[in-house]
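User: Hello! My lab partner asked me to get a predicted holo structure for this protein. The small molecule is S-adenosylmethionine, SMILES included with the sequence. Please write out the structure tokens.
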Amino acid sequence: MNDLTTSPPADALKSGVRDYWNANPCGTQFTEMERGSKAFYDEVERFRYENQPFMHALCKFDAFKGKTLLEVGCGLGTDILQFARNGAITTGVDLTEESVALAEKRFQLYGVQGNFRTADAENLPFDDNSFDVVYSFGVLHHTPNTQKAIDEIHRVLKPNGEIVIMLYHKHSLHVWLGVPAYFLYGLTKGKLWGYDEWVRIYDGKHNPLGKAYSRRELQEMFSKFKHVRFQTCDTLRRRFPKWLNDLNQKWFATWAGFYIMIYGTK
Ligand SMILES: C[S@@+](CC[C@H](N)C(=O)[O-])C[C@H]1O[C@@H](n2cnc3c(N)ncnc32)[C@H](O)[C@@H]1O
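Assistant: Hello! Below are the structure tokens for the protein in complex with S-adenosylmethionine.
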């Protein structure tokens, strides 16, 4: 496992992570619309769920009516909006001020209730046993100490509370096919690019940190939780024809997807 402890290099890495996502809020790359406009949010939302139709069921957007739900790493607020529209009492945090501001603005624009604040997943600013549900999608593999963030989620979750979390999955088609191809491509450039580099660039050439995990590693990392189970999924490539992505989602992604959903209770 490649987690770092809270040494000065980890602090520097955390600053790099913050700077990167502050400059590139997740989802803004998929639209040309004016940032913060209604057309912008609508386009981000349409693009996300058209390309990742499995999210509606796997993220359980409609399962938490009346429950207090914390999203860790809420980005532009696309998913937390779905929970809020379905009656959850929502709080979103993100490491970056830009994402929090955009998520807050989105809720105001749509007239939906939600609380937002800038916060670090590794040091959540909430009391023990505060939330019925903690949700996090594609976030905890970007923070230097992923285990610390998981332990924080456990701490702020109420007894019997639920987690719905997505992390990157090591034993996936994306890794099996991509790493050898990327290695060969690297050789043509005189570089030795391997697994770590392939996982990192999934979120952009300048993304400072990305990690992926096996089910076995995740079992250990989530061992404080009860009833832990996994489900993989993904979209092969957004630019591939729909029929190919549909085929992948039906036949391959359910056992070797690059996204691994983690469910469990405290
Ligand atoms: C790939 S984006 C995902 C955003 C959102 N969950 C989504 O799916 O659109 C990663 C997000 O994680 C946030 N992030 C990274 N490290 C974090 C940390 N330690 N605490 C809170 N948020 C963090 C980034 O600021 C960024 O918004």
